[in-house]
Amino acid sequence: MNTPISHVEEDTEKRCTSNREADVVVVGAGIFGCAVAFALAKQGRSVFLLEKSLKQPDRIVGELLQPGGISALEKLGLSHCLEDIDAVPVYGYEVIYYGKGVRIPYPDKKIEGNGSYDYSNAKGGKPEGRAFHHGRFISQLRKACAQQPNITIVETEVMETIESSDGSQVIGVQTRTLNPETGVKEKDHYYAQLTIIADGYASRFRKQYINNTPIVKSKFYALELIDCPLPAPCHGTVILETLLRFFSTK
């Protein structure tokens, strides 16, 4: 759903005087939303980072960040977000195929040809990944964004985009923000030259801008094992006969 600018003309003066305009609006303070907001803010751009709920997420999503992801965080200046979240270093995989295990470490040097990769370890050591709780990592990313002076984080529910009168450009978003005094969600608007939608797999905007319907081809199930000894400490353990993956320091 999108609102033409003609429907919000009464807010023009409010737009200019209420500090609701920035260079960029980012919808969704997940991994990508926080990362892109932080990167743009470091370029000197003002950013509104809008998130429906700033509570720490409690779900299992992408618990292993590969070496390339670690390198990307270092380049963004966000590698400190991996600290103090009980992140486990990962040096490769233990692949168990019907009872027979093979340990596959991450390559320790750049490979040329079709298998080439771009990885730089700020500490100068071998490539390594990190396994961690998704929610704790998100909280650290949000904390880093909150400390960036060019980013304003707002807990608000984005309802729809706002388009120019000819429909050629998205100029902002319409939201509902909880008034702590009344307990009622009130309509609000945020405007920017660039609007980035990063509200995740359950996006309310995907159908609006993408005609193709996503096809679910697989499902993910997780089982938390407390203090369970595994074949390869600090390695991802892939058991092909049951399609399970574990991470452990033991």
Automatic annotation (TrEMBL):
Keywords: Endoplasmic reticulum, FAD, Flavoprotein, Membrane, Microsome, Oxidoreductase, Transmembrane, Transmembrane helix. GO terms for biological process: ergosterol biosynthetic process. It is an enzyme of class 1 (oxidoreductase). Pfam families: DAO (PF01266), SE (PF08491). Its cofactor is FAD. Its EC number is 1.14.14.17. GO terms for cellular component: endoplasmic reticulum membrane. The keyword Aminoacyl-tRNA synthetase does not apply. It is a multi-pass membrane protein. InterPro entries: FAD-dep_OxRdtase (IPR006076), FAD/NAD-bd_sf (IPR036188), Squalene_epoxidase (IPR013698), Squalene_monox (IPR040125). Residues 192-241 form the Squalene epoxidase domain. It catalyses: squalene + reduced [NADPH--hemoprotein reductase] + O2 = (S)-2,3-epoxysqualene + oxidized [NADPH--hemoprotein reductase] + H2O + H(+). The chain crosses the membrane at residues 24-41. GO terms for molecular function: flavin adenine dinucleotide binding; squalene monooxygenase activity. It is found in: Endoplasmic reticulum membrane; Microsome membrane. Residues 23-53 form the FAD dependent oxidoreductase domain. It comes from the Eukaryota. Belongs to the squalene monooxygenase family. Catalyzes the stereospecific oxidation of squalene to (S)-2,3-epoxysqualene, and is considered to be a rate-limiting enzyme in steroid biosynthesis. This is Squalene monooxygenase. It comes from Blumeria graminis f. sp. hordei (strain DH14). The lineage of its organism: Eukaryota, Fungi, Dikarya, Ascomycota, Pezizomycotina.
